[in-house]
Amino acid sequence: MRRLGERFTLLGPGLAYLTALMVVPLVLVLSYSIFQRGRFGGLVHEPTGENFARLFDPLYLDVLVTSVKLAGVTTVLALLLGYPTAYAITKLPPKWKTVALIALVLPFWTNFLIRTYAWIVLLSPAGLVNDALTGWGLIDEPLQLLYRRPAIVAGLLYAYLPLMVLPLCAALERMDDELLEAAANLGARPARAFLSVTLPLSLPAVITGCVFVFVPSIGNFVVPELLGGGQTAMVGNLVRDQFLKARDWPFGATLALAVVAMLVVLLMLQAWSARRLQGGRDA
């Protein structure tokens, strides 16, 4: 009993936190999803399966597909930019490595909304990007960079790129340099050593970074609203509108559950992939 009490003392705060901020909200959302919408909003406590049937409406499926595409493109670009960045950071001297990591996380010290508004200043017709292109003579008229899907991808990429770089930095930092020396001694060129040694050993961090970028990107509603001008709806915007504008709480809860279920499947695939990679490495 004393050992059980000690374990509860250690686990109690964490379990209470998870219960209050994750389990209880999920139970509430699940309970909302099975009821009907009232005439003027709110809930009518009459069970129905109509909310789940509405998920397969082409309108909502199109929003979900658009969200997956934008989040997927953001994740791929984050990987293409983040891997060389992380690799370069790990090769810096210790002093400059610390400076680079601080510069990487420095934007997180600023409010997310303010950082998103900064992109409006950059991409607007009278913004810095158009001014620079006009001043260099590359364009005659300002480009319409705002309120398009590339602007949404740029905003999401800027917001979540550090979430790709940090796990890659941690994985590459722990890598034994003697493995690369052994590959070189066996006649492997740098590119071959990277593909045969560095890349396979960093794959778990690659998968983790992709999950870290994809998950918040698909649920983001601030960036599509501000940089997309509300013209491109993502699933986060749809959930918000159902709760705050349409006052259709049951369907909003159903959409939220669908997103949570998809992300749980994604996290399970990530865990399974990490175990497979670790098992193959140990073998």
TrEMBL record:
Xref: Pfam families: BPD_transp_1
Source taxon at top rank: Bacteria
Database matches in PROSITE patterns: ABC_TM1
Record's subcellular location: Cell membrane
Segments forming domain ABC transmembrane type-1: 64-272
TM region positions: 15-35, 59-84, 96-114, 151-172, 193-215, 249-269
Keyword match Amino-acid biosynthesis: no
Keywords of the record: Cell membrane, Membrane, Transmembrane, Transmembrane helix, Transport
UniProt cross-references to InterPro entries, sorted A to Z: MetI-like, MetI-like_sf
Membrane topology type: Multi-pass membrane protein
Family as reported in the entry's similarity comment: Belongs to the binding-protein-dependent transport system permease family. CysTW subfamily.
Name of this protein: ABC transporter permease
